[in-house]
Amino acid sequence: MHGSVRDRLESLLSEGSSTIERREVEEHLSSCAECSSELTAMKTQSELLHSLRAPQEVEPAVGFYARVVQRIEERANTSIWSVFIDSPFGKRLAYASLAVALLLGTYVVTEESQDGHLGGRVVVSQNSSFTPVIGDQQEQRDAVLVNFASYQSGTGQ
Amino acid sequence: MSGLSAVLPFPATAGETNRAKTKLDHRTTEEAALVRRVQGHDELAFREIVERYQAKVFSIIYGILRNRNDAEDIAQQVFAKIYFSIKNFNFQSSLLTWIYKITVNECYDYLRKKKVRKLVYESDFSSDDSLRMENSEPATDQAPAVDQRLAQHDLVLKLLSKISEEDRSLILLKEVEGHSVEELSEMTGMNENTIKVKLFRARQKLMKAAERLNKGPLTPIAE
Predict the structure, then answer these.
(1) A36 at the B interface (CB within 8 A)?
(2) In the list A7, B33, B66, B219, which could disulfide-bond B124, CB 3.0-4.6 Å?
(3) Which A-chain residues 116-145 have CB contacts (< 8 A) with chain B?
């Protein structure tokens, strides 16, 4: 749409343009098919939008303020969980959290089943200063304490 | 449609520049004083806001949904929202503009949640058109016109759902409420040139949305 029409579009659509303005626009439209068709389409669109005007004066029934106050009180007393239950964002957040929890759970279970049972044995075998737990009860207790005291994680010593 | 026109701003006139300098300060109006009272938890001030705007809000909702029960329910929701969020009102626009935006958004939230477009047809038909049809000419003459009007109403709602909340409010304030560009400038705090550019772009987006919906060229409403 050319500037001469575009600048006056709103007044043309609301029939608020002056006679001089209208004459100037009509002159342009007579020689510009693009502006002419676009203006026609916008006038049609404008008429369509008028269909959203309330057909007559409408007012709420008597006691509207009391009902608004009641609605406010209900909303003020709503539990924090209703934010998650009622709002679309809350629902999406809950679903996303559930999906993340499921993924993490699956990962942990998979890892456990692959090498979960080997963990303890690997740790002990890495400890080169491992003292065999043999002898009587006192010696066994000492050997366990020595193993704990000399244990170094993942060094292979 | 010219791509260039969607990018270039409108030239500002001398009159617009002057008006922009003397634009209404929404922080110093009588309405602003009322809002401050509500922000200070004055229940009477809130009641005054409800009583002042309830008919307006009700009409906006009824114009969109065409159902009194829904209008009542959403109007209550709108004023509850106003009550809880008025502390965030920043006086950049008029109170009516802010309320209008909340009202239209609530209507669209409702339509989105309930997916009631078909119910809108039925409620509209039952409330106004059925009475008119019963009391006048044979139904066969008017039914296509009513159907077409309802379908167009639905099309307009669908098209408006494709543009931003700001564009939607602005174009409805212009086309449905009948405000001039100058009035919109005062109400929103934007200059007239910006309003014109925004309206033009919104209209173009609506045209493109109509093309995408494969509805073909828009046709005028049947009387």
Answers:
(1) no
(2) B66
(3) none
State ipTM.
Answer: 0.73
Q: Give the minimum alpha-carbon distance from B72 to chain A in angstroms, rounded to a whole number.
A: 6
SS3 content of chain A, % helix, strand, coil (to 5): 70, 0, 30
> How far is A101 from chain B, CA to nearest CA, in Å?
28
Contact A68 B80 (CB under 8 A): yes
How high is the mean pLDDT of chain A? Answer: 78
All residues of chain B having their beta carbon less than 8 Å from the beta carbon of residue A67 are: 72, 76
Kindly report, residue by residue over A100-152, the tens digit of the pLDDT.
Answer: 999 999 888 887 776 555 555 555 555 556 666 667 778 888 888 887 787 76
Query: How many contacts (CB atoms, under 8 Å) link A and B?
Result: 129
Q: Give all domains of chain B, ordered by start, each with its CATH number.
A: 25-115 (1.10.1740.10), 162-223 (1.10.10)
Closest CA to B109 of B157, B46, B175: B157
